[in-house]
Amino acid sequence: MTNYFKLPTWADKDHVHAVVETPRGSRVKLEFDPKLGAFTLAKPLFAGLTYPYDWGFIPSTQADDGDPLDVLIIHDAATYPGLVLRCTPVGVLEVEQSSKGKRERNDRVFVVPDRSPFEGDLQDIRRCLPGPSRSWRNSSRRQMRSKRRH
Fold it and tell me: Which member of 27, 38, 51, 139 lies 3.0 to 4.6 Å from 89 by CB, making a disulfide possible if both were Cys?
């Protein structure tokens, strides 16, 4: 099976690859396990909760927590785990979290698939917000770090 972690980050100069782990509407969190070469159950969500959008990662990147950069894929289509989408980055939610007693960054990159008929014109995630927010920023190629995973 394909090692999704090792796919190229950039599809071209304007688009990144995004790998779907957990599709919208899912009641469980899935994650790619490179040792098994398969998607596995990470955890169920609380009763009544579902993922509002596809969640996954940007391959060949590494966030401060050691995992690939998390990605939220904004579109209306139904997808499935393992689908690789060519996407335009439109923003980053800068997240700081506690893990094992220490604080670390765990940002989320927001992207729109290049073939999305409804969201394709979205260039900046801040256009979706009701007011200004300091925790959001528009993303660009210069601000994204890419690192090969082994």
Answer: 139
Query: Secondary structure of the chain in the HEC alphabet?
Result: CCCHHHCCCECCCCCEEEEEEECCCCCEEEEEECCCCEEEEEEECCCCCCCCCEEEEECCCCCCCCCCEEEEECCCCCCCCCCEEEEEEEEEECCEEEECCEEEECCEEEEEECCCCCCCCCCCHHHHCCCCCCCEECCCHHHCCCCCCC
pLDDT tens digits along 52-62: 999 999 999 99
Q: Could you read off the pLDDT of 66-110 as tens digits, one per residue?
A: 899 999 998 888 899 999 999 999 888 888 888 788 888 888 999
